[in-house]
Write a structure and sequence with these properties.
GO terms for molecular function: G protein-coupled receptor activity. It is found in: Membrane. The chain has 153 residues and is mainly alpha-helical. It contains 4 helices and 2 strands; from the N terminus they run H-H-H-E-E-H. The chain has a two-stranded antiparallel ribbon. Helix 1 runs antiparallel to helix 2, helix 2 runs antiparallel to helix 3 and helix 2 runs parallel beside helix 4. It starts with a helix and ends with a helix. The mean pLDDT is 89.
Length: 153
């Protein structure tokens, strides 16, 4: 959906309908945040599968993942819309080319908080999960090598 909204964004912004442009910008923002949220949930799942292998039972795990994956971006979008729906709009870059218009976040501070900071936090979370998984794999490897040396003796 992110790709579909992105590819049709310029065309839809050429209709000069402010409400349509706001809707497209909100959808683009939502699906972008949802994609990164699901990427974070994948890293959590990776951690649970490789580090916390045993005794990991989370009741209604898929339901909780779906609520987080689709709900957290919805909360961010709701906050932005509640503060001011005019943060979304049509940003024209060229007067001669009508297809240079693009519906997106118009306020820089809102962009940096709701997109850049969000993606940065997910990047930090994914990095922490990745390092934890690598350390776990390394410790399993070293334990296996110690056991094989003992058995060879």
């Amino acid at each position: 959906m992110l790709n579909m909204v992105f590819l049709t964004n310029s065309w839809l912004s050429s209709f000069d309908q402010p409400s349509l442009c706001i809707a497209v910008a909100v959808l683009l923002h939502y699906f972008l945040l949802a994609a990164f949220t699901w990427m974070c949930l994948e890293s959590v799942h990776f951690y649970l599968a490789l580090v916390k292998v045993f005794n990991v039972y989370v009741p209604k795990y898929i339901l909780k993942c779906c609520i987080a994956g689709w709900g957290i971006p919805a909360i961010v979008i709701s906050i932005v819309l509640t503060v001011n729906k005019d943060f979304y709009g049509n940003g024209s870059h060229s007067e001669t080319n009508p297809f240079s218009n693009f519906c997106w976040i118009q306020e820089n501070v809102v962009f940096y908080i709701s997109v850049v900071a969000y993606v940065f936090l997910i990047f930090l979370m994914n990095t922490a999960m990745f390092i934890t998984v690598l350390l776990q794999i390394n410790s399993v490897k070293s334990r296996t090598q110690k056991r094989s040396r003992i058995w060879k003796r």
